[in-house]
Fold this protein.
Amino acid sequence: MATYSSMHPDPYAQPRYSHDDPNYVDTMRNMEPTHPALLGYLFWVIGFTGAHRFYFGKPLTGALWFFTGGIFLVGWIIDFFFIPAMSEEAQRRYRPAATDYSVAWVLLVFLGLFGVHRFYMGKIVTGVIYLLTGGLFGIGYVYDICTLNEQIDEG
């Protein structure tokens, strides 16, 4: 049997969109960016290590940049001009979450071996494990560099 509330939606309820809905894309454009270009440029400074590519959710090319010195620094220099586009792509790909992507990335890059980013994300048990084992002897640190965006997006 239909009730009043099922026939008349709450006018104050927040709309629910899917990633494929054009309204969702418009809503996301008006929100604070998940991956600001400014932080991307800061990671680009050490970008010959691929840091900016990992930050924007491109772990394969990030690894390639890491092992080739940013494709022998030529790709690194070219990336300076692509950072705004990478930022927009990451904004479309990753939805805003309770955990701020930028804060989590800064904590991971500078204090990741101590698990500080894990504490920030609310993963206390693995944060303690990282703290006691040096980021699981560096393996967990590398894993988090490759998957941090997805971990935040799922959480």
